[in-house]
Amino acid sequence: AGTSSAGSATQQLGSVLSPAFKAAVLIQQWYRRHVARLEMRRRCTWRIFQSIEYACEQDQIQLHNFFSYLMDQFTPRSSKERDFISRMFISGESYKEAELEKYCDYESIEVPDSYTGPHLSFPLLPDHATALLEAFQQKQQLHARYVLNLLHETRKHLKQLPNISHVSTCYSEEVTVCGDLHGQLDDLFLIFYKNGLPSPSKSYVFNGDFVDRGKQSLEILVILFTFLLIYPKEVHLNRGNHEDHMVNLRYGFTKEVMQKYKVHGKKILKMFQNVFCWLPLATLIDQKVLIIHGGISDTTDLDMLEKIQRDKFVSVLRLKKRKESSRKPEIQAINGERESGTDAAGNEAALRLSLQPQSAQAPSTANRLEFSRWLRQTVQEQIDTCRRLVDISESEPEELTYSSMVSLKDVNEPCWTRQEEWKQILDVLWSDPMPQEGCRENKVRGGGCYFGPDVTEKFLEKHRLQFLIRSHECKQEGYEFCHNRKVLTIFSASNYYEIGSNRGAYVKLGPDLIPHFVQYQANKTAHMLTMTQRQGFPVALISRVEESAFRALREKLFAHTSALISAFKAYDADNTGRITLSNWATAVESVLRLGLPWRMLRPQLVRSTEDGMLEYKSWLDDLAMEQRSQEHIQSSLLEVIYRNRSNLETIFRIIDRDHSGLISFEEFQQTWKLFSSHMNIELTDDGINDLVRSIDFNKDGNIDFNEFLEAFRLIKLPV
After folding, report:
1. pLDDT tens-place string over residues 321-349
2. What pTM value is reported for the model?
3. Which of 143, 242, 483, 560 is labelled catalytic?
4. Are both 569 and 483 inside the same structural domain?
5. What distance in Å separates the CA atoms of residue 674 and residue 70, rounded to the nearest whole number?
6. Is 242 a catalytic residue?
7. Which residue range is the domain that position 307 belongs to?
8. Sign of the alpha-carbon dihedral angle for 215, 220, 221, 226
């Protein structure tokens, strides 16, 4: 009886456990699928952000090519057009030593008694740094006099430093390496809170890209420069690709400075521009670990990098040509032929005339040959003037710097061309690692190289290094190894794309040179959300980041409406206005070339259809802009504006020399004409005039570019 009762009890227990066990298995399977879907969404979102970011950097390179085009080839059609081009180039002119000191004279600026912010006196002390940290936490602003004074002292210090800084772990317990900060002051505060302030026993290397994108780039630079002057042996700063005034025009630092310092902003910007070109290019720890911002190429040579006069490259995106005393006549003949279409004899005559003084008055148009010669002479003189304005001064003697002393000492060493020197710096600041072997042009960013593990191995072996530390790329966890753990990427700006998109990190190296990582997220909201799940990426946070990514992607799609229509029509032979969803994905990638999994992203971008077909014209209409103040503007013009919005903003800031935020109708029209001629965009004068009138909201005859940008926003589509 006992045995039978025990058996029945076992059967009853089994019958009870079986459904529970099955339920547990089902829950586990559901959970795993859920986590897998979240991870897939996270990866897709990440790819969208990175693809769009790199596409924007390609636009920056195209804009650089636009400036080169204006300087080297564009033929002004009138004196107004010549003046317009001159103003664009004058904004980038280089100041000689004495001129810079006079222009940025901080002693002439008085600090009023009403000023309640921090005060600086030199030489700086640790208390000054503490006062700055507290003031910036309370959203106070440092007076312009102190900013200029700090930049003046920083510049003097940087000029004495080599291109490659040398750090030893023998003098401190460890060295902390930080990556991109991009104007995110909260990340810097969090690093100091977790790791401690710079001190004789706490060395730091900050690996470039201190500015742009974030809203507190200036405060970060003030703090870092202050610690650099207080602890010159313990704090080291490398130049990044964003320490470049041409990049700053596009990505926010120029705008930030002018908003915070409306009176002395131009002087502060000019000093920052000069300080940036004196930042060292690399840091070497114990002769074994090289820290550079971007990467290397198969031609990177530390010996050459160490001897380059780095201050000559104010903007790496803008390789300035040296003045040549004897320009080849055949080149001038070609230019003359392009401009006038006359024969060789006429070109030679134009060449001779171009060396004569400019006539005070234009000859009569009745004599067409004489008038043509006069016009070519005027154009050539204006272009030469522009070239002189943007060239680097070579005449005025300056005080000896580390770079100049190296050049004097090694006069018997090989002499490199300016192009070779420029490429060395460009590769170090802009390159990225790739998993494949070899080295190739970095077409994704538009600058620098992609270098493979074989390039890394040869470079490390040649210079007897253990590994490289670089930044330049946002990583989801804040750091990432590649190339058999020989290349380490460190990125310190958390929540870079959106709150919760990524962690920031820094790495600590002791005498054993073994990396120890610290990760963080500066935003409190993101931190609280990430604690709600073990995976650290909750549904609510993914949804927020995902929404931001798809909003940016829709903007990109709208900006290429015309090209998309052409691509869709190629799959619509019968002109039905409908294509398959598969063809939609193929066509979109052929136009945008972002390398995204469009079939996977389709449900977020295209409404589901029962027959698997898409009415593409209707879909494109859904991507249209809000028609508040631009109903009468051509839709094709709207598309062109949106596609080139960032380029136009950069050009606008160059034209707006007084940084007032306003340009005249005529200047705006000239901007469009020059830009459209370079980009082969067909726009009518009537279309441009309609655009001008529509965005002059207060009818004062000037254009506020901030209002112009605000006028063109995409509507948010239901998904």
Report:
1. 444 333 343 333 333 333 333 343 444 33
2. 0.70
3. 242
4. no
5. 8
6. yes
7. 91-109+122-318+418-520
8. positive
